[in-house]
Fold each of these.
Amino acid sequence: MRIVPFIICAIITTALVIALNIPLTIGGNKTPCIGAFLSPQQGFWQNAEPTNYDFNQSLKFSNLHGKVDVYFDDRLVPHIYAEKENDAYFVQGFLHAKFRLWQMEFQTHAAAGRLSEIMGATSGETNFLRIDKHFRRLGMVYGAEQSLQKLEADPITKTETDAYTAGVNAYIASLKPNQIPFEYKLLNYRPEKWTNLKTQLFLKYMSYTLAGGDSDFEMTNAKSIFSAADFEKLYPTTQDSLDPIIPKGTLFEPASVVTKKPANTDSVYYPSAVVLDTPLVIQPDRRNGSNNWVVAGSKTKSGAPILCNDPHLGLNLPSLWYEMQISTPNYNAYGVTFPGTPSIIIGFNDSCAWGVTNAGRDVKDYYEIEFRDSTMEEYMYNGSWTKSKFRNEIIKVRGQASDTERIAMTVFGPVMYDKKFPDILKDGKYYAVRWKAHDSSNELLTFNKLNHARNFIDYIRAISTYQTPGQNFVFASKAGDIAIRQQGQFPAKWLRQGDFLMPGIDSSYLWQGFIPSRENPTLLNPDRGFLSSANQLATDETYPYYLGGIPEIYRGMIINRKLSQMNSITLQGMQQLQTDNYNVFAEMTRPLLLKYLDESKLSPDEINYLDKLKSWNLRSDKNEEGPTIFKLWWDSVQVSVFKDEFLQTDLPLKWPDENTLLEALLKDSAYKFVDDIRTSAVENISDIVLSAFKEAFKEMKEADVENRLAWGKFKDTGVRHLLRLPAFSRLHLPVGGGVNIINATSGNHGPSWRMIVQLSDNIEAYGVYPGGQSGNPGSKYYDSFIDSWVEGKYYPLLFLSHETARTSNKMKYTMTFSEA
Amino acid sequence: MKFLVACFLTTLLSFAGGLFFPWWVIAIAAFVVAAVVPLRSFQAFLSAFLALFVLWGLLSFFIDLQNQHILATKVAAILPLGGSYIAAILVTAFIGAVVAGFAALTGSYLRTPARKAV
């Protein structure tokens, strides 16, 4: 033996193995363990699924009570036929895990404030620890725990979720190390067991996405800068153009919950002061939205109702949605599901169809807490010092010591902002957050019942217990009924309650009660023969409760206009409408801009772009240049109008909604904010429109030179992997549409599922989502629907009986599950 | 002949070990083979290097072929290897080869008598 070379070589070999067996940090990003990652027998190669992979399989589990047949069609959509209903949820859990395990766990880790555990405190540009702290302090885990109690107290959801969880875990237990999903290998961690709590965490994640927004701090800041009159001009609570979900003129019964406004609101709450000191960050608002509508048989060619839904959400890979059919002795349903929860979420069954859009009501408010001292042990409430409770949230951080957030709990809710975690106004105060998602609620029961629903009464019963996030549930049945209800458990609020930070020294500003479900805006079989919702306000101002700020205006307007004009509606007509790129906002705004523009002051080159805008057909199609020119000009107008006022503060303000400026200018060209308060001259709208065009012209020219003046290129839509890895994303998709357009496809979000269902004797349905059934980036089913989605094409949805499925030549693979 | 035997044994042991043990089982396989099969040090290195280059190269090649390059192309974009699936295969083969080669070299010195020229 040659000692010296042996030792040297042994050291080299060991060092190589160790270096290849630990994650290294390169440029702030962690790399996988290269050796394990590259190993063809264990690493990423094992996730490279053969394109002709055979999904046929026969499995036995002791948890099952009967037989379950699953047929996969050529798009890899599973059609589950179970002899026992709960077995269907077991298989649903198993299949969700088989195709989407990493995503399910990642999303629930995000909801639970556990991303640091896998990503480290920071990675790249992202501060995961800060994000985790935010979710913990918001009370996401607290809320999920509350709701879990309710879920487990109900025998239906308890057995359903238990079966689902068992299915997920049965898959996880069957996983060999080489089979774990790609992302675990990339980030070097392992899947953990699923729990019912994780299902609740996922639902809270959806609550956060859809009912977790607020601008209370920004609005409070605005209140300190603008007079009450100016404030109402910037942030009105409704608009003339609003075409509400429940048509104007509908009569509402008086409120059964009568709210009492605190006596001191004028002095301590409503906008009043004009204080000119503080600062600003411009934050243009971007919102999640959705469309749904339903037309009665009287307006369709077939005589059967048609229901359409396209929820607009962040566009991600793996997709939020997973398509499936679930058939049990009690019901037969088809639609999209959330990997992470049982049941079909949006879809149809043998008797009826349902869809949702976001209600967007404000259910998240803050209260300023007065603590006796910085220990937060006691706070002032109704005249006496009250003991706080505490909740310790331990955040594990990869590669370093755990972090503990000690959160004071008050009657108002968890103290989200304190000395250790300051709010965005950096005012050093304590704020507790009261969020509807903290409450114990059982949303899964609603979806379970919707899957079983046979008629309008079943639908109303199913949704009446639904609490958060508030949704506009649209409904159609084979019996011919069409209906809509804005459902959620909404706090009954007095005018502008919760628009600003509220005093939290007594109970006077607390939510005083919830609006009973039966008083939620509802409409059944209207004379006009259609119903729709597109995130606009549910009602006009005759509804006896305060609805909160105005979300959307224009999509609702164009949908209602088109539907009222259409007759003998076909499924193809609905497909065209769902993917329509007509820009009604530009239809209203363009004439206004052109009216005030003095063209004689433009250069020939500028006129060139103006002419393109003038000749634009108002359709935001991918190849049109008009939409780009319009957007640049209009954005520039908004900035010119508001920037001067907003420069009065460095702290965050809420940028006024674009409908606010349009509606104001339509009413009165001498809108107060048009004048630039920084100059001695008084600017009028013509000055602003001209200077804004000249300003925007630079960007038009630049975009043109870079060959991205065409709207599709300028907008640059992409569907991004949850880890934001470009190689695992589909970027630069040639697609039209955008904000205020029915085809609401913007840069990174838009129609996350398009569905059209005709409730004829044999249900005819179409659907598509921008993703694929497999969450594995190494599968050909990972992004297989994206091209169809981009082109506005749909797939016919195979809604088959067990017998037909067994013999259908559309079915490519079969999995059978039976009792062990 | 001994060279080929070493190559073959290293390939076989590495493959079989890879079915049950972590990836670095290839180092153990190469080390053991080199300690048992009498080869000069450089030949031992080369035999293991070639064995693993071929084993990991061919395994990944066939997986990639059946996958129609879907995943290797994506992984090659983040490694970063310019999105080339061929580069991904070659790097895989090379990493396995280097580890096995040094392990074999170590093994060969275990067996080589002291002061005997290489």
Amino acid sequence: MSEKRDSGSRLGDGLAQVGALGLFLLQVLAAIPRSLRYFAETVRQIFFVGAMSLVIIITCGLFIGLVLGLQLYEVLSRFGSTASVGTVVAIALYRELGPVITALLFAGRAGTSITAEIGLMRATDQLAAMEMMAVDPMAYVVAPRFLAGIVAMPLLACIFNALAIFGSHLVAVSWLGLDNGTFWSNMTGAVDVWTDVMNGVWKSAVFGAVVTLVATFQGYTTAPTSEGVAYATTRTVVYSSILTLVIDFLMTAFLM
Amino acid sequence: MTQRRSHQIGTGLFILLGFTALGYLATQTTSLANYRQGPTYALKARFTNIGQLKLRAPVKVAGVRIGSVTDIQLEPDRLEALVTLAVDRRFNQLPDDSAASVFTSGLLGDQYVALKPGGSPDMFKDGDEIILTQSSVQLEELIGKYLVGSGDSPARKPEEAKPADPAPATPDPATH
């Protein structure tokens, strides 16, 4: 009996979380015009979530490219079509791997630090103090991070893609001996700017919004204890990863 | 203050790097890399079958790209495909009896329009139509021809000879 009520209330909690996240999104969107006053803060956040994520993005992009080059060369050589290694790498990266892996890394690298930072602000009553000083924390704390995520994610994904292409070129051409011209001409022949490259850019902008929205929401609504901040940080990674993959599927299914 | 300045410089560098990457991806790894900006002139060609020819497919002479397909339409009255080609103005020495064919690069590759120069002293001008065209060869047709062709090749030979010599050409109706 009590178990049943538990699962029921858990479902209710879940629904309430989703609803609260939706309301939070509306609040953030409403706060964006007011946050334009704090433009320098947005720039600072782009530095923190974007520029500070460069190392992990560059390293992972390079290695993803290296392993894609190796794997695809091995598999495609079974069909005698190693010439299309570059094409397959580029299309897979632009349309799926680049935006998705960057978003997952971004959730781990930038999302967690956003949640921890805002969570600690909540735990130490800094957010309440801001309200006392007539500074809207939505406009000063949350919206700049949200905007920074939308700006930084596509750029990070592009850098990731460029490094991955470089990595696969390194493996396929310099190491395994595929012809350089074949690699590029097949790629340039098959990849389209709008349907492939820009598609990934839109996707990664949406993922940037999703990850920073979840991260700021978890930080903003955390239980004001050290344990609460720890849970909120974990939830940020879990929820934003799941949401990213679900939205990726929906965008792929409906926008192509 | 100096910290804030270094943040701004870092952000600027990051954004610059991101857009450089985007520009590189968009221009060097996509079909834009094959796109030559420059004045072009239009040629039209009618094909009974264009196969898998697509917009922006290359137009080649002697295997070298000189332009691209800019428009493909079905003519409602003639039921033929009207293909518009944009050819780079630098290549304005194409004789007006040149022939256009739809070829496939490789066995299963993309299709392109190949122009075979003729011998006429007059050159193509903007908007001219290429009279001599050869449709795309469909792989399925070829396969079908070989598969079915081995079966009815004895019946086909007299059929081909029919106009010249109608007397022996009475194949059984089943082959029709």
